[in-house]
Write a structure and sequence with these properties.
about 110 residues; alpha+beta; Ribosomal protein S3 C-terminal domain; 3-stranded antiparallel beta sheet; about 25% strand; elongated
Length: about 110
């Protein structure tokens, strides 16, 4: 009998915790410095990807997207993703990390292998 693979959504809480924790670890209470944002988004995404692969036991293709905005700029941020996938197996987890200086929106997409 073939084993049934878990749904990506079964990892939702653990993945959200990873995203929030990694955002906090990298950004802390740092000020928004445009010259540093590129390295911050890469570091957050890479750290999340490494830990998410372990949590999901490499059962999914993973995509991590991190967006950082200057919170003190007073501008809005709207983001949207559209997907075509098997909603019974695939999924997305989105988390935010906010400080008075920075808004980070982190999305983890998982597609069953």
């Amino acid at each position: 009998m073939a084993s049934v693979s878990p749904s990506f959504n079964s990892f939702h809480d653990g993945l959200k915790d990873i995203a929030e924790r990694k955002g906090k670890e990298v950004l802390g209470q740092k000020a928004y410095v445009h010259a540093e944002v590129r390295s911050h988004v890469k570091e957050i995404s890479d750290r999340i990807l490494e830990e998410a692969r372990q949590l999901t036991n490499k059962q999914f293709k993973l995509i991590v997207s991190t967006v950082i905005q200057d919170a003190s700029a007073g501008s809005g941020l709207v983001a949207h993703s559209s997907v075509f996938w098997d909603s019974s197996a695939d999924g997305v987890v989105t988390a935010t990390y906010n400080t008075p200086n920075i808004v980070a929106v982190i999305s983890i997409f998982g597609c069953a292998v």
